[in-house]
Amino acid sequence: MTDTDPAFSLLDEEVIAAAALRNDPYDFAYVDHAIDLKYKDEVLADAPEIPFRGTYAVPHMKIGPRFQAAVDDLQSPRFQRLVEQKFDIDLSPYPTTVVMMGNTTGNYNEGYGHPDSKHKIITVLLGFSHDWPHERGRLRVMRSEDREDYEFEFPPEFGKMLMFRVCDHSWHGFVPQKGERKSLQFCWVDSEKYVQATYMRHRVSAIAKSNAVMRKILQYAPRKLS
Fold first, then answer.
1. Mean pLDDT confidence for 31-38
2. What does residue 166 show for φ and ψ, rounded to 5 degrees?
3. Most CB within 10 Å of its CB: which of 70, 150, 168, 207?
């Protein structure tokens, strides 16, 4: 970090920097408390309301100042440098996206294993669920598209962070579980065109899910995970 980088408002720089980079089955790192639990109530009070399943673009959502502070930390040059050092990568050419999941229905068509879009470079997941007492529904770092073939599980609870390098075998997914499963996804991606396409896709999806009939159809439709 440079002396001119503003300090984080919420992220714990020391614990993020200290998190070990694991290479099996692909490059990933887990941080148990990327945000101290003392901030939990105030940040969650400012988190967006997400009434339906699926993923929503954070720039299109109403959020309070303490949740915004967490987003600002992720979007800061200071966090970028932490991730660059962790993965030995230059992220300066790449724009970012930030989206959020709020609920899962437990239906069969959620959580399929996927390696992430080829347009993503690094994916960072930050949990915002008040708690996650379920055995199912934890994101799995997987060796293949088989959700039972996994190395690590990430509970989407407040302050827990998972970051990984996207590649053709960065398989991840979860076993369906109904619940308030709030998890923010922050990514470096390969182009501004992909940023705009991502936000437009989620805007259209959010409008569709606001309609009761469309919501019923989408609830059981096959999901394209990206």
1. 98
2. -80, 135
3. 70
For strands 28-31 and 172-173, give the pairing: unpaired
CA distance 208 to 160: 31
Q: Where are the domains of the chain?
A: 13-220
Vertex 127: Cα angle to 141 and 21 (nearest 5): 45
d(CA 109, CA 183): 18
Answer yes or no: are the C-beta atoms of 124 and 187 closer than 8 Å.
yes
The string over 66-96, giving b where at least 16 C-beta atoms fall within 10 Å of a residue's C-beta and e elsewhere, is bbebbbbbbebebbbbbbbebbeeebeebeb
The model's pLDDT over 169-226, given as tens digits with 9 standing for 90+, comes to 999 999 999 999 999 999 999 999 999 999 998 777 766 565 555 445 555 555 544 4
SS3 116: coil
What gap in Å lies between CA 113 and CA 121, rounded to an integer?
18
Q: What is the CATH number of domain 13-220?
A: 2.60.120.620
* DSSP code, position 168: T
Name the E strands within the chain: 28-31, 55-57, 96-105, 120-127, 139-142, 150-154, 161-165, 172-173, 178-189
Rounded-to-integer distance, Cα 15 and Cα 219, Å = 38
HSE-CB for 213 with a 13 A CA cutoff: 0
